[in-house]
Backbone:
């Protein structure tokens, strides 16, 4: 590990003020510490946010505000979440292990880096790790790579489960800028597609801090599911995952939300399938059609063609589990 | 017997010390830096920056090193049989090959300094793709043809298929680690993770040209081995070299990433099988071909076709094999080595044949077991209860509920199927010694150099010492895993308990003989007593109506505890009989139609391990092997990128082994009949048979569930959706 300066910030303001260009904020550290051990992240300064950012979960308007410092575990067992936003708890529990969920924070979850094996291997090129070096995965192993929204410069996927639920529920990200200005960003706009700048994962302005997540009131608590297909039953990143949420009245779908992990550089919304389902009967036949629509949208790589069939199956499974 | 493990309290409370956990005052840290290319030559190395980094004490490379005697010439390298002469060559044979050691005050400093070393290579083309390279390697006979070899006739049905398995890595929880401490120029203390302290002692003695007695090896607790600890690897050498260079104790722990390249693995393998039977299901012939990957500097033969010649009476047999050299590190034995790879192919082919013949897979096996003799060498089995294993396992799983037709048990999107397979292993026994120390209070210490890699060797020794002497178990303590204790071989190949049982029996007899001698000294009337008749209880020794207190015996011994040591080896019985451990594996599982998820619902495994010395430890060992088998079958795969020249995703996020959620509570039972010829305890080793058979049982159940035959391990969800 490269030597670094450790700062424990007492407030958001202090954290923002302390940060140098090569400094990094640390929440639970469940990703950053690994990256530092592997000499992928080489901060000269680490600013601990424990005590600086909110760990509260409060009612906000008719929705819920989750402090950036709340642990994944705390979110997953919160009574309001379980009652009104169970999709979030389902997604969290599909990821990592209890030990990691205890440490990991909500803010940090949004900022975790890809798990693309080439990103982790310093002996291979990676545009995300080292700008302009090339992509090791492009003609390499693509089992865990993207099927949509990728470019020649990067085919990596975002690894989060929580973010898939948050994008499905149209959450908002609360941000405080370096200058101390408070603002917010729609969750669906927070993460980036790789384009030709895959070293940038998201649109969080340089030097600013995620302070909270707002989840707005929604009608999906009764009919939602999170399906994660992976190479073992627990503690593995998704080959593909699907967050599905339906608003159903008298057997008819009023509105639908569908999002996936393991498919793109960002948590991905399936808007056309959502539109297709709205107004239709909640039947297996319509679920199959929605899955087929999604299947048509994606462009698997030579090394992950199986994801087409897998996604097709996972979408249907998630929709079926909603009812 | 269901006694708790002798080391249970230490393990549960954390006081058990593993190699890297010993506190040796003044210890500094070393890390090994690996090559970033797979094949070539080191042109130059710039180590100045690393050497100047904070906390760094020394950088060792092939250019600046304390030369190790046993690696100093090619002739000595051949003699010491250490393997690749790391730090004594500029040649690169694989990506990750250790090329430098950095020694620093702290682990963090050593690790960071390692990244500052700059190396220039002369890069040569590499070959790491087994599936391409194997096509260029011809097969050679593996064993003598039986009958007409592959030129048989008279079959009604045949199955001819290819089978493959990906590279698997042992990944014991405890990573390989060494603390090396030169107490003077010629005396080396090693705290080392391995499966045999005597092997480490001999190897280091040869390498550093010092008497074996000068190398003291501690391996009291070993956090899993699975075969990776059966060799002395670069970490042990590097720690000893570094300790010599800085004249301080040095601790070297491999990283999880280094565990992929530096301590062996189960090689990827290709197999082809042709298996034929007559219309009644009697096997006519088998032709088994196999290739396994190896390194470019060592030929490792995994022995894949061995099991094909072991279980069934097949009149015509031809087995062929070859080794495929690659620019990767050397593989090594991994649990059920060779046999569990070969068994997957044979037992899958048998299942296919059963469907073709319209026979129950259990029936097909009953018709063909070679229950009287070893089918190759013709020696009668001492005991062979493989059929009993199958009978018991079939009952446990409810085999009568298995649908004959595939895809016929459906519930929603889940398809349920049943599968079975058998596994077998030559039951071995090696030479081993044990010592006993009996004090005036009747407390007994039983000791041996053998390690306990988690199998319960110590507990087994306590159980056997109780049986052989009569001393109650709470008075028997165990010492093992240290080179100054009575010598014993490595713990591998399912020979540990079998070997040590002979030693415990022999030393128990020696103890009784010593007691008798002391008793006679005190009271001449003991001279009529036979040593074998002596039984020890809480008060003292008893025989033929006589008794003598421990305190009196110790008095007769000059106030000293009674110390005995004895050795035991296999003998003539090996010429008269063949010995077999076996197991039957039965699985019920469901496959999800839409996501390819496999859910193992019930797993029953019944083994013939002779007499079961400790049922709990034995079942624990079997169950662990089965979970290893689930990993092997459904998920374990070290991924290779030919362009990169080595492993990709070489961490525990990229390499999946089974977690608790992947396995049901594995149901284990034993035939539990003694093999009276193998050793004094009647026990046969169980280390391998818990995994041999698992892969075919699971894949056969998948076929029964969804009608899809997967012959390519691991069976990940994508292979079931295609």
Residues:
């Amino acid at each position: 590990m490269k030597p670094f300066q450790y700062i424990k910030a007492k407030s958001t303001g202090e954290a923002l003020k302390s940060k140098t260009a090569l400094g990094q904020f640390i929440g639970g550290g469940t990703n950053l510490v690994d990256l530092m051990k592997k000499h992928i992240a080489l901060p000269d300064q680490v600013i601990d946010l424990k005590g600086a950012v909110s760990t509260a979960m409060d009612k906000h308007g008719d929705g819920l505000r989750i402090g950036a410092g709340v642990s994944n575990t705390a979110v997953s067992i919160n009574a309001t979440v379980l009652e009104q936003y169970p999709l979030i708890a389902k997604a969290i529990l599909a990821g990592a292990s209890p030990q990691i969920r205890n440490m990991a924070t909500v803010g940090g979850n949004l900022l975790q880096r890809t798990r693309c094996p080439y990103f982790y291997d310093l002996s291979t090129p990676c545009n995300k790790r080292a700008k302009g070096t090339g992509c090791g995965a492009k003609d390499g192993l693509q089992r865990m790579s993207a099927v949509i929204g990728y470019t020649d410069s990067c085919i990596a996927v975002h690894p989060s489960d929580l973010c898939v639920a948050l994008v499905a529920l149209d959450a908002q990200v609360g941000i405080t800028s370096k200058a101390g200005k408070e603002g917010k960003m729609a969750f669906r706009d927070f993460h980036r597609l790789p384009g030709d700048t895959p070293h940038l994962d998201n649109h969080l302005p340089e030097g600013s801090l995620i302070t909270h997540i707002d989840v707005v009131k929604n009608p999906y608590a009764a009919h939602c599911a999170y399906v994660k297909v992976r190479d073992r039953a627990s503690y593995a990143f998704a080959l593909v995952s699907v967050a599905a949420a339906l608003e159903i009245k008298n057997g008819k779908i009023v509105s639908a939300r569908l999002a996936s992990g393991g498919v793109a550089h960002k948590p991905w919304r399936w808007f056309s399938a959502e539109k297709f389902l709205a107004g239709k009967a909640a039947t297996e036949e319509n679920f199959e059609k929605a899955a087929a629509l999604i299947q048509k949208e994606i462009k698997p790589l030579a090394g992950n063609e199986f994801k087409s069939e897998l996604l097709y199956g996972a979408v249907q499974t998630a929709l079926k589990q909603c009812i | 017997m269901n006694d708790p493990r002798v080391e249970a309290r230490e393990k549960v409370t954390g006081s058990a010390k593993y190699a890297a956990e010993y506190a040796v005052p003044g210890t500094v840290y070393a890390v090994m830096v690996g090559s970033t290319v797979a094949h070539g030559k080191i042109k130059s190395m710039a180590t100045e920056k690393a050497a100047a980094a904070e906390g760094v004490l020394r950088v060792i490379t092939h250019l600046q090193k304390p030369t190790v005697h046993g690696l100093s010439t090619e002739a000595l390298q051949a003699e010491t049989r250490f393997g690749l002469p790391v730090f004594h060559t500029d040649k690169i044979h694989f990506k990750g090959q250790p090329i430098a050691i950095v020694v620093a005050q702290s682990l963090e400093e050593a690790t960071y300094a390692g990244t500052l070393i700059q190396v220039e290579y002369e890069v040569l083309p590499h070959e790491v793709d087994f599936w391409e390279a194997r096509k260029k390697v011809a097969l050679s006979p593996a064993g003598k043809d039986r009958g007409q070899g592959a030129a048989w006739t008279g079959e009604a049905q045949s199955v001819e298929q290819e089978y493959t398995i990906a590279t698997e890595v042992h990944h014991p929880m405890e990573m390989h680690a060494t603390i090396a401490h030169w107490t003077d120029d010629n005396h080396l203390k090693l705290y080392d993770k391995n499966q045999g302290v005597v092997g480490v002692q001999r190897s280091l003695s040869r390498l550093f040209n010092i008497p074996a007695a000068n190398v003291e090896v501690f391996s009291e607790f070993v956090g899993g081995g699975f075969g990776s600890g059966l060799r002395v690897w670069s970490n042990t050498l590097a720690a000893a070299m570094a300790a010599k260079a800085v004249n301080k104790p040095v601790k070297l722990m491999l990283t999880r990433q280094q565990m992929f390249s530096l301590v062996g693995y189960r090689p990827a393998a290709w197999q082809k099988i042709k298996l034929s039977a007559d219309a009644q299901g009697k096997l006519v012939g088998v032709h088994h071909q196999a290739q396994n990957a190896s390194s470019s500097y060592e030929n490792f033969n995994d022995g894949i076709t061995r099991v094909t010649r072991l279980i069934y009476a097949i009149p015509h047999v031809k087995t062929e094999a070859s080794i495929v050299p690659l620019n990767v590190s050397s593989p090594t034995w991994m649990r059920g080595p060779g046999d569990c790879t070969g068994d997957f192919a044979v037992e899958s082919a048998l299942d296919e044949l059963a469907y073709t013949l319209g026979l129950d897979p259990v029936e097909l096996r009953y018709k063909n077991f070679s229950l009287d003799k070893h089918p190759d060498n013709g020696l009668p089995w001492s005991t062979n209860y493989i059929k009993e294993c199958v009978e018991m396992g079939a009952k446990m799983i409810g085999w009568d509920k298995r649908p004959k037709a595939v895809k016929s048990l459906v519930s929603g999107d889940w398809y349920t199927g049943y599968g079975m397979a058998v596994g077998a292993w030559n039951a071995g026994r090696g030479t081993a010694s044990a010592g006993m120390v009996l004090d005036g209070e009747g407390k007994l210490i039983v000791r041996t150099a053998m390690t306990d890699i988690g199998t319960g060797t110590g507990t087994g020794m306590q159980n056997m010492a109780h049986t052989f002497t009569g001393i109650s178990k709470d008075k028997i303590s165990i010492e093992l895993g240290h080179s100054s204790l009575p010598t014993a071989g490595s713990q591998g190949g399912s020979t540990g308990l079998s070997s040590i049982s002979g030693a415990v029996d022999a030393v128990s007899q020696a103890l009784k003989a010593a007691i008798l001698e002391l008793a006679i000294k005190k009271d001449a009337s003991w001279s009529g007593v036979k040593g074998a008749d002596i039984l020890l209880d809480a008060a003292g020794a008893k025989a033929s109506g006589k008794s003598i207190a421990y305190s009196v015996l110790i008095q007769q011994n000059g106030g000293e505890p009674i110390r005995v040591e004895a050795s035991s080896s296999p003998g003539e019985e090996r010429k008269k009989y063949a010995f077999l451990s076996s197991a039957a594996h039965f699985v019920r599982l469901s496959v999800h139609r839409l996501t390819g998820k496999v859910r193992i619902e019930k797993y029953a495994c019944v083994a013939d391990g002779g007499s079961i010395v400790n049922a709990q430890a034995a079942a624990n060992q079997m169950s662990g092997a089965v979970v290893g088998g689930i990993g092997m079958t459904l998920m374990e795969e070290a991924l290779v990128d030919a362009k990169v020249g080595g492993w990709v995703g070489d961490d525990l996020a990229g390499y999946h082994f089974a977690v608790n959620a992947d396995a049901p509570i594995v149901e284990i039972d034993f035939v539990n009949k003694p093999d009276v010829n193998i050793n004094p305890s009647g026990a046969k080793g169980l280390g391998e048979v818990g995994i041999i058979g698992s892969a075919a049982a699971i894949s056969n159940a998948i076929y029964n569930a969804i009608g899809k035959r997967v012959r390519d391990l691991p069976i990940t969800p994508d292979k079931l959706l295609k």
In short: The longest strand of chain B covers residues 283-295. Chain B has a mean pLDDT of 97. Chain B touches chain A at residues 36, 54, 95, 108, 111-112, 115, 413, 592-597, 599, 634-635, 639, 641, 643-644, 648-651, 653-654, 656-662, 716-718, 721-722 (CB under 8 Å). Chain B has 18 helices and 30 strands.
